[in-house]
Amino acid sequence: MSLRTALTLTSFLASLLGLANVANACFPALGTSRPDTLPDNNSNWWCNPSDEYAFLGFSYDVTACQDSSQLRKDFKNMREKFNSRYVRLHGACDSKSFYDEVIEAAWENNLGVHALVWFGSDGDDRWRSRRDALFATLHSNPKAPFVTRVVQFGSQPLFDSVLDPAALAQQVKTAQANLKPLGIPVTISELAFGYQQHGVEVLDAIDSINANMLPYLNKNASTGANAWPAVLEDLDWFIAHGKGKKIYLDENGWPSATSPEVQPNSPNAVADVSNEEAYYKLLDSKCEVFRGVAGGGVGWFSHMYSDQKEPGYGIYDSNGMLKFPFQPRTEC
């Protein structure tokens, strides 16, 4: 089923009536706050995925091992200035207590976390110790199941060929078994092209589809305002092969500048601030389309929060200045 035909009857009627989604008292919906005491479990804790479409939050690079005060400052800004509901971690900090600090900062600011087991690009086995450390914290910190919405097992691990697809699928299944008592699902963060190269074994194993959407790298890329055909192509593929699973666009954006790591595959691709802004305006204009996708709609992240660690993609530049007005829609 293509994106053009994936509207559910409920969302179609809601769009006709001009009704906005009304979130119940759930975490981390806008307008709600954490309770004074933790519930017994998180079975009725999280918002329904059907309410989690449009803008959700930011990718946030943690290779700097930000201290707790910086985490709290940034997470507070995400929530209060931009209406973020989630933060999606990127990179790795191998400090022993770091994810505990992330949990505290997220809890304090009513943010859910898309956690990440980072593989990196060195081909080493440090991901194993990162996995074990993250899982230990998830089991030991009582707030972890109420903050951690999903664990992403790698960022582009198929595209980067960090593990054989069968081995990666097994890692996902083992992680699911480990985290099932905590009610924490497991996925990977991946390009459509990564699945297309290596088959859908991993796609079948994951609990949600956390799609990398980087249309600037498309071979037909031109401007941010004209990126919809590339986005639609990948979305249609995920809808056709994803068996109705919830879709998030997590590593998702258009750069304001090139770098050694960010080089286009089209001579017509333009990287500047106005095109970065235009891409997010394009996503805003497709809010009703995103809302109607089966599985609860498509929620998207801005990649990234700051240029300090991945030049070009941040909403803030390397000097901490906002590049352009950014108030994306969180519902429609």
TrEMBL record:
Where is this protein found? Cell membrane
Report which residue ranges the record marks as coiled coil: none
- Which processes are annotated in GO (biological process)? cell wall organization; polysaccharide catabolic process
| InterPro entries, sorted | Beta-glucan_modifiers, GH
Family in the record = Belongs to the glycosyl hydrolase 17 family.
Q: Does the keyword Hydrolase apply?
A: yes
Q: Its catalytic activity?
A: Hydrolysis of (1->3)-beta-D-glucosidic linkages in (1->3)-beta-D-glucans
Report what the protein is called.
Answer: glucan endo-1,3-beta-D-glucosidase
Function text: Glucanases play a role in cell expansion during growth, in cell-cell fusion during mating, and in spore release during sporulation. This enzyme may be involved in beta-glucan degradation. Active on laminarin and lichenan.
Q: How does it sit in the membrane?
A: Single-pass type II membrane protein
Q: Which UniProt keyword terms apply here?
A: Carbohydrate metabolism, Cell membrane, Cell wall biogenesis/degradation, Glycoprotein, Hydrolase, Membrane, Polysaccharide degradation, Signal
Leader peptide range in chain numbering:
1-25
Task: Provide a GO CC annotation, any one.
Answer: extracellular region
Q: Which organism is it from?
A: Pochonia chlamydosporia 170
The taxonomic lineage of its organism, from the top, reads: Eukaryota, Fungi, Dikarya, Ascomycota, Pezizomycotina
What Gene Ontology terms describe what this protein does at the molecular function level?
A: glucan endo-1,3-beta-D-glucosidase activity
- Which EC number(s) does UniProt give? 3.2.1.39
- The source's superkingdom equals Eukaryota
